[in-house]
Amino acid sequence: MKQTYKTSPKFIFSAGGTGGHIYPAIAIADEIRTRLPKAEFLFIGANGKMEMEKVPLAGYDIKGIDISGIQRNRWWANFCLPYKIFKSLRKSSKIIKEFSPDMVIGTGGYASGPAMWAAARRGIPILIQEQNSFPGITNKLLKNKAFAICTAYPKMESFFPVGKIHLTGNPIRSELFQHLPEQRKAKEALGFDPDLPMVFSFGGSLGARGINNAWKTNFETLKNSEIQLLWQTGKTDFLSLKKFDGKSRKIQLKEFIYDMPMAYAAADLIVARAGAMSISELSLVGKPTIFVPLPTAAEDHQTKNARSLVNENAAIMIANENISSSIMPVIQDLLSDTNKQKKLSENFLKLGKPYSTRDIVNIIFEKLEIEA
Q: What range(s) does the Glycosyltransferase family 28 N-terminal domain occupy (predicted)?
């Protein structure tokens, strides 16, 4: 170890609100723990949010703060926000003083702000990891406090200081997606005909109502075609859509997909929301993908994510309001054009960052003068 006086550095991870902010933090912590088993970790998140459950399940301690994001559609709900920010800053400062971290790493979301601000005020180095092509408010406010900003997309100079940007990609468990099963075997393993095209559609653990409604609207057309569908409905709509399960041997409904690599391997085409982490996984898989951005995502960042891929001829985008009328024609057109499929796949794979987590941790260790 280059840094012999500090064999067990301490790290605080500040993130929350959605899985898109939480799972990158966990992935970075896992990589540090693998390379530096004596390191100590603490997460800070928002009370009552999913991080308070997900982080302990991943094997890390977490402390909660009372903070919430800006309510864009319920402006009156923001009256208490200044008090919450003040209170969460005080608690974050107390946590940081007691834990005495060597670095604080923020992966975005409103829950990351107080701890990052408190750390910066104490002179503790902070690192930002930005998942999206359009940064959130918290990361934009913290840009001058961080020593490094790890981004998933190029051309972020208009948002962040040029000298701080590191184009690393998003931290994911890339090893899961680098050695996928052979496609025919994957289709057979999932109960599909290996000689027919298969579409994999998913919208996250809760699902995507716009995409679900599109399949419901086009069910008869789909049933009478040669297209097979693995349809992950998500938890919210599964019971109401279960009546469609079993009506066609070519269509399977699942509330949740536990083996994503197998589903990716089997697919000829993929239909998905344009969340940052889904895009990062899919860029390693390289299957032709149709993105349907969630229109209510903060600052419409999913549309910006998808558009950045469309501009590179790496994906297709359909607006949520057009999905029911457009999904079948777009899929049929794409399945009939193998050259277009090949070009989309090639361009998507070029954008993949298989060593993103390792590269982010290398930046962290370099700052702390650690070799591991």
A: 11-147
